[in-house]
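Why show two proteins at once? Because comparison is the fastest way to build intuition. When a single record is shown, students tend to memorize it. When two are placed side by side, the eye starts asking what differs. So, the first record is below.
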Amino acid sequence: MSEGEILRGRVWRFGDHVDTDVIIPVRYCNMFRKEELGPHAMAGADPEFASRIAPGDLIVAGTNFGCGSSRETAPVALLGAGVGAVVAASFGRIFFRNAVNVGLPIFESPEASAACQAGDRLVVDAARGVIRNETRGLSFPFAPYSAQVAEIIAAGGLVPYVRRRLGLPAEE
């Protein structure tokens, strides 16, 4: 995601307290690359999710998305599956930080979470702090990222951000 990018996708709906064991079950946590983890994303809730999602689709969830263990593999798996972003009423604190660290866009909006249904089409304008549900004709404001968090996500995560800041070549 580059700064100011507009995200568009279909909603995949999940409920409250989706923990990291649901996002990526522990049996897959011996893998680390997003290409390996992606096919198993959300397997604890919907074993077919990764095979049905289209690149850029969005997860919309309730409260405390990403609660549970601090496994960084959870947001990496979502990226590997092609998830464009996660919108939730709230996030587990460690999941939020891990998502930023790996470059997964996440947006907190209790109002959008409550109003979106599976299959709705969303447009997220991260720079302006607006989520539009095109299916239902509704818009929801949210607090945009700080400048530094926006830069980290735009860079693709913390490691690429630091490499860029230090003038190092991108990892292969």
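Second record. Ask yourself what differs from the first in the token line.
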Amino acid sequence: MVLLGYNAVYIRKLSDVVNSRPGKFDAKSYVQKLWAGRLQEKLDSAIDVNTLKESLQTDPADGFGKYTHALAIGNYRYAMVKGIAMVDVVKEDEVLVTIQSAQPFKAVVLTEFVYGNTLRDASGLIDLQAFPNTGDLNGVSGELNKKVRQEVIPALKSMLKPGNKIEFTGAVELNKAHLRFDDIEIVPVRIKRIS
């Protein structure tokens, strides 16, 4: 017995499929609204980086559960943190700082290579189920990172010098399997010079 599958397979150009989607997602508008609204609330309620560090060192399961977010299963978790730091060195693509603490530690404030999903996932505001495809989800990351590069970093680079004390709020990526706070990278969202 022979079965034929006539017209069982259709081949269409990818561009035709993408352009035919109803209500094409506008990542830029989505991020503008998120940035002006709910993200500001998340920044206001960011966990102090020293509290996060202590919590993760004392009871990692509880600390990761309470203070971090991730859109997928795995070792990488993300958190929105705030704190006080002293500027050590201002480089072209990063600012090296020392986080003020009972046991101070070094950190890196990114000022050039702001890519990836750190800010998107640290916010805890994105519901994976609300995005039908990864392209839209990645578009949100791209637009958030672009806002940081275009709106936050230029002001940051022009105002900071070694010896300045700053108050910062930003996003960090943490690896549950290899947890380290020394030289942690911070994607800055708010920076205020205190002195």
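One difference worth noting in the second protein: Residues 14-20 have pLDDT under 50 and may be disordered.
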